[in-house]
Structures are given as structure tokens and as C-alpha cells.
Design brief:
With 278 residues, the chain is an alpha/beta fold. The chain has one domain: Luciferase-like domain (TIM Barrel), CATH 3.20.20.30. The protein has ten helices and twelve strands.
Length: 278
């Protein structure tokens, strides 16, 4: 982290890729190598049971294959006890020599059905948010004075944003398909005006051109509608235009950490080569 706060100055750009294991192992390993060679900073795993291998062992394997940072994008708080998530996160931080970032949130839309299918209790959003705080608190206790596992919080409502301002190193404002750019701009600027700590702002980009990233948005997402609405959830697939838009979002809103799907990692590699670290 730099010495900049959410209220002043621009952080250097960095870029992450959500790259779950959905192919054979050799193909996935080759993908990791390309991502690392392209200058991306972080290899990320979603937390969707039964869709892909569990994030923790997958990230541990990924960390042995490259020098990339690794992280969850993001742990869903109601899927496991807070202490279990914290222990897992702390263990990954230790085993990767400090290269792990714990992304955590209250769960994607529709997680209630997923919890019922798994036989887990369906708790209201307020309790899920309390589970996030409990998880981060337990992680800090496990880390102790000599380790600081970076925490990325995916948030949306005002209570979640307030908590993130207190606890998180990085904050991603969760986007919905119908969100207007003006409304999200207001939310982000309000967050920045209230934050008094060094907080990095992250942007979850689910669509690049007409390509929808698996695990990052609902399968029925309409890329054309998002482009027409000038949504922050999309970027153009032309590298020059994407680089210009990314720089605009940092200048106007403070976003400096951008996360793409693996399906678009090669397309945006020229953007990463140009902007990473600047």
C-alpha cells in the first residue's frame, strides 16, 4: 500500500484476473503463466461451491507456479464459520510468504438458494455483514503483530461501506446490471469523502467488449445493455480505448485496482503492460 488515502492522490495501477480452474490442469497452468508474464499482479478465485475446486487449495497451487499475488474474489461470509475462513486466510498468507489477499463479502445475489441447497442456515443481510466483521477480526488476531493479510471487501449498502472504511485495505463497490454510472459515481465519491484511512478502490469489470466473464456476472447479463447504459461494469475491448477509460476512472473516481475475467486477460494484456505500476 502507498501512503495515499481514499481522499487524496492517485494510487498506482494494478490488475487482477479471476481465473478459476474450469479446464484440465495443463491448460490452466499455461493460463497462469501467460497471466504472470503479462504483468498482472493478482490471481483470484471465486467462492462458488461445486462449480470449481475450493479456492484455498487452488490458490496454494497457483502460488507455487508463479510469483503472482493470490486472493479470493471473494469469500462469501455465510458459507463457513468466521473462524474457519480466518484460519484458512491466515494459513494462505503464511504459506505464500505474504502474497495472499483475503477478499470477503456477504455473498452474491441469490446466495439464499445456494445456502438452502447446501443445508446451511439462511441468515439476513445484517447477520451476514456481522460475519464479515467477525472474520476480519479473527484474521487480525491470527496474524498478530508480525503479519498483515490484506483484506479486500466487496460492499454495496451504506452499512457495508462504513464497515469497509474501518476494516478493509481495498474496497470494491458491488455493481448491479441496472446501476447508472451517475449513481455509482455518487456512491464512490461519498465513500471517498468519508474515508480517513489508506484505502485502495477496486473495480470489478465483468464485461470486456461483448465478452462476459464467467463467475463475475449472471449468465443472463446483456453486454449491449451495459454498454448502452455506460455501465462501470464494462470496458471496451480495444486496448487503447480501454486504457483511456481506465485512466479516466482513476482520475474521476479513484479506482486504481482493476479485476478482469481470465477470458479477457490476453485481450487487455497491452493495457496492463502500459499502465501497471504507473
Amino acid at each position: 500500500m502507498t501512503d495515499l488515502t481514499a481522499t487524496g492522490g492517485d494510487k498506482p495501477f494494478r490488475f487482477g484476473v479471476v481465473a478459476p480452474l474450469t479446464t484440465d490442469l495443463p491448460t490452466w497452468r499455461d493460463q497462469l503463466s501467460r497471466i504472470a508474464d503479462s504483468g498482472y499482479s493478482t490471481l483470484l478465485m471465486p467462492d462458488v461451491p461445486q462449480w470449481q475446486p475450493a479456492p484455498a487449495p487452488t490458490l496454494a497451487v497457483a502460488a507455487t507456479r508463479t510469483d503472482l499475488r493470490v486472493g479470493t474474489w471473494v469469500y462469501a461470509s455465510p458459507l463457513r464459520p468466521a473462524w474457519s475462513t480466518a484460519w484458512e486466510a491466515h494459513s494462505l498468507s503464511v504459506l505464500t510468504d505474504g502474497r495472499f489477499e483475503m477478499g470477503v463479502g456477504t455473498g452474491r445475489p441469490g446466495i439464499e438458494d445456494e445456502l438452502r441447497d447446501l443445508g446451511l442456515p439462511v441468515v439476513p443481510p445484517g447477520e451476514r455483514l456481522a460475519q464479515v466483521r467477525e472474520t476480519v477480526t479473527a484474521l487480525r488476531d491470527l496474524d498478530g503483530p508480525d503479519l498483515h493479510t490484506p483484506v479486500v471487501m466487496a460492499v454495496r449498502g451504506p452499512k457495508a461501506r462504513t464497515m469497509a472504511a474501518d476494516l478493509a485495505d481495498t474496497v470494491a463497490i458491488a455493481l448491479m446490471p441496472g446501476d447508472e454510472r451517475d449513481e455509482i459515481t455518487r456512491v464512490v465519491r461519498d465513500f471517498r469523502s468519508r474515508a480517513t484511512r489508506d484505502v485502495e478502490l477496486a473495480q470489478h469489470v465483468a464485461v470486456v467488449g461483448d465478452t462476459l466473464a464467467p463467475f463475475m456476472a449472471s449468465p443472463d447479463t446483456d453486454p449491449a445493455a451495459l454498454h448502452a447504459a455506460d455501465s462501470l461494469a464494462v470496458l471496451p475491448d480495444d486496448p487503447a480505448a480501454a486504457a483511456e477509460e481506465i485512466q479516466r476512472r482513476r482520475e474521476e473516481l479513484g479506482f486504481s485496482y482493476f479485476v478482469f475475467g481470465a477470458v479477457s486477460a490476453d485481450t487487455l494484456a497491452p493495457v496492463v503492460a502500459e499502465l501497471a505500476g504507473r
